[in-house]
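Researcher: Good morning. I'm working through a list of sequences from a screen, and I'd like to move beyond sequence-only analysis. For each chain I'm collecting a predicted structure so we can compare shapes side by side. This is the next one on the list. No need for commentary yet; just the structure.
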Amino acid sequence: MSDQRVVVVGASYAGLRAAEALRRSGFGGELVMVGAEPHHPYDRPTLTKHALESEPDPDVIALPLPASLGDVTWRLATRVTSSDLEAHTLTLDDGTDLAWDGLVVATGLRSRHLPIPWEPPRLAVRHLDDNRRLRAAMQEALGSGRRMVVVGAGFIGCEVAAVATSLGLDVTVVAPEAAPLLLHLGEPLGQALRRTHEAKGVRFLLGQVATSVTATGNGAHVELSDGSALDAELVVEAVGCSPVVDWLEGNQLDLTDGVLADTRLRVLSGPTSDPRPDVVACGDVARFVNPLFDQVARRVEHWTMAADTGKRAGRALGLHLAGAEPDPKPFAPVPTFWSEQYDLRLQSFGLPQLGTPAVLEGSLDDGLSGGAGVVVGYHRDGVLAGVVMAGFEERYRHYRMAVGQLLP
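Model: Good morning. Structure tokens for this chain:
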């Protein structure tokens, strides 16, 4: 029906793909995109990679808007503060209400902050404006003491450390784990990645946490759990993210970790409840069962999943609004991520954190950066749950197809 309105909360990659899928499914009504940032959807992964080295070109990182979305109403620099799903209304931060017939939840994540005293401005990288602030702080540090502390050794922490080191900063990474990216890569590959960073000059203080960050005349003083301390011109906080779901509270949804949804991405109040066909979730905020692995509902914070879940959610909502039957096709996407650090590109398929690591091709002894490459598989009960590759580009398709299958 042309008089229907769908509101997409989250002007993100996932939200954009959901809007496209709505149009492809035949929805001809009003589309409203509400985004907390002042920017149209853009390429987020580059914020911790090449866009940290120089001013990102808005035309380069902006995601193309297809002709089918030329009539979208954009409400940027606008937050949804609360929602009433039964009344089909949203309340915006300017106090106005926005009615809807269909709702897409695509609010993604916000940077997590440590519950410790932290006096200087917190520098994290989640949004374009975060990137600009950190890039300016890095340039300022290059003109002074050149010291930088990164709290956290996950994807963002390691990528920021790589860029900062390449620019000439003296980087120390502090993290409680035994190896960088331990959850995603496992111990053997994580330690190989550590050696790659150390060869470039990065210092790791692992098995420790920051207990306080105080401001000094020219930077910050970081106290650590072992009683030692670090002084630096800037400190970056890279300790993960949390789902943006506060605006959905009070609606009897399962918001334990993101928004619980069924395999069509329709939101649920619990694992056995009936879905709401007029509300769908997609992107980093959506938690759902992927039968390729098991029956456990998970959020997957990978770029490709934003597209996959956005398309699935948009189609499900579009079919519902058209009065059509739900799509019977199974939904079992293969999560994919990549990480660029120095001249190293890590490529992964599946969910490596579910399995036990073992080298399938190459060798970790050759190193990761500039070496012959390595393929590490992660098996669970004889099934390849995930794979991480450095090099072996000609084998990408093989290993992507192998995820979820038995391997010798």
